[in-house]
Amino acid sequence: MTEASEPQPDEVASEPTESQPGEAAADPTESQPSELEVHASRVAGALRSLIPDVVAEPQRQYVRVVVPVEALEAAARTLRDNLGYALLSMVTAVDYPDRIEVIYLAFALEHSHGVEIRAVLPREDLPDCPSLTSVWPGAEFQEREVYDLMGINFVGHPDLRRILTEDDFPGHPLRKDFSIDPDYVLMRHLRYGVEGQLRPEIGRGSGASDGNGGVPPGGPRT
């Protein structure tokens, strides 16, 4: 019986070369920025001439950038004209204990990553903020909603009126310190009767409540 010969040195499988001390193994994906990080870099680059210390940060699927309120309109116009952020998706605001932040979220049609532009306002009654209706006309109704519910005065807005509450509504109901006099609610409720605040134009002709919450027998009229 013939014994198997031992492998010669040149037949031994080569083992991976160990990295030298202090030398990290190269990761081909480590140096590649994500698509969102690329967009954040572009946003920062586009705004740097307006705001030298601007910081654009990836946040979920958005690029978040905080700009001084006096540069808000110019920053929004730059992002629209230079980077294609032409679709305004949202206008909102956040009430913090020491400030109010107004937020615009806009998208470009070429990719799915939006840009979230924030400006910090003082926490006071009706702080001023430039309207962005000249940049995104679709901001008109949304700024009216933020004015109504959060109490922000959008300077330059073409028709800044309340949109969800009545013109004489006392205060702005999404402020964290909002409170309302119960007498105001009571008087509004009793204006057209105790059984449902039935308005004359939707009653049965007389304006008096029919005892059914203003709904005629058989269901509402069409």
Describe the model.
The chain is of the alpha/beta class. The protein folds into two domains: 34-179, Beta Polymerase, domain 2; 181-217, no CATH class. It is 21% helix and 18% strand. The protein has helices at residues 35-47, 72-83, 139-150, 182-190, and strands at 56-59, 62-66, 87-95, 100-107, 114-121, 128-130, 153-155. Helix 1 crosses helix 2. The protein is elongated and about 65 Å long. The termini are far apart.
Secondary structure layout:
Blueprint: H1 35-47, E1 56-59, E2 62-66, H2 72-83, E3 87-95, E4 100-107, E5 114-121, E6 128-130, H3 139-150, E7 153-155, H4 182-190
Parallel strand pairs: 2-5, 6-7
Antiparallel strand pairs: 1-2, 3-4, 4-5
Helix pairs in contact: 1-2
Helix content: 10-25%
CATH class of the largest domain: Alpha Beta
Widest beta sheet: strand line-up: 1-2-5-4-3
Distance between the termini: 103 Å
Please report the number of helical segments: 4
CATH topology of the largest domain: Beta Polymerase, domain 2
Uncertain regions: pLDDT < 50 for 5+ in a row?
202-222
Taken as a percent bin, the fraction of beta residues is: 15-25%
Please summarize the sheet with the most strands: 5 strands, mixed
The total domain count is 2
Average of per-residue pLDDT values: 81
CATH architect. name of the largest domain: 2-Layer Sandwich
In CATH terms, the superfamily of the largest domain is NADH:ubiquinone oxidoreductase Nqo5 subunit
